[in-house]
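Q: Convert this sequence to C-alpha cells.
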Amino acid sequence: MDAVRSRIKRRTIAHERQGGRVYVLLGADEARPGRDQPANRPTDQPRESDALISEMQARIAFLERELDVRSEEIRRRDTIIMNMTETMKALNPPREEPSESPQPRSDSPVPPEDLGTPGSGTARGAWWRRMFGG
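A:
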C-alpha cells in the first residue's frame, strides 16, 4: 500500500481524486497522468479478492459436505461394531467361574489317582520319580 501511495505522490501511476478518495486506474499501461482515462474500480475493492472469496466459499462448502459424509460413515461403523459385539456375546456365553478345588478333567489321559503329588514318595508319584527312581 505504501508503494502505491508513493507512486501517487510522484505522479508515476495513473490515478484520479474524487470526493476525498483516490482511484488508481488499472489495466491501461499507457495511462499517464494528464490523459483522460475512464475510472476503474476503487483500490479498496479489487476484482481478485472477489474471486478468492468465492473460491474459498466453494472450498468451505466442499469440506462441510465431506465432514457430513465422514460423520455418517463413522456412525454407521459404530452401529455395525455394536451389533457384532452383541452377537458375539450371544454366541459365546460367559464361562463359569472355576471352583475352589479343581476337579480333574474326565478326558485326561492319566487317571487322577496316578497323578500323585511331589514329595509324596508313593510308587505312583510323579512321572520323573517313576522314570528315574526316587
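Strands lie at 15-18, 21-24.
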